[in-house]
């Protein structure tokens, strides 16, 4: 939710169906990435597009996540106040407006959607993996938890 606040400008309720779906799609894709079909897809996407397998589910999940992000970007465009950016998306939209006449500009809605998604995935993935490893280490070495009086 901290990453959501920075990127999307809003926190989601932990019971929010859309947010829970988003997390489910991301976690499922993390699991599917290790399948042999998905790895083959990375090397032979044209051939693998026609074959069934877990890579097809991963593509569908990615499309859902992309749609989720794109909807938030479109909502931000409608409610943008250039004098008061709420988050990363608003700042990017302001830069898009500044670059409007520049045909070589990389500040496009498509770039914004992909960058927003990258920031969200990187932020949530890194944080969750770090916390999982920390819990595993504390579980493996419980004496670390019991040494609250020791100073390092």
From TrEMBL:
EC assignment: 1.14.14.1
A biological-process GO annotation: xenobiotic metabolic process
UniProt keyword annotations, A-Z: Endoplasmic reticulum, Iron, Membrane, Metal-binding, Microsome, Monooxygenase, Oxidoreductase
Top-rank lineage group of the source organism: Eukaryota
Molecular-function GO terms, alphabetical: arachidonate epoxygenase activity; heme binding; iron ion binding; oxidoreductase activity, acting on paired donors, with incorporation or reduction of molecular oxygen, reduced flavin or flavoprotein as one donor, and incorporation of one atom of oxygen
Main location: endoplasmic reticulum
A Pfam family annotated for this UniProt entry: p450
Cofactor: heme
Membrane topology: Peripheral membrane protein
Cellular component, GO annotation: endoplasmic reticulum membrane
Protein's cellular compartments: Endoplasmic reticulum membrane; Microsome membrane
Family listed: Belongs to the cytochrome P450 family.
Name of the protein described by the UniProt record: unspecific monooxygenase
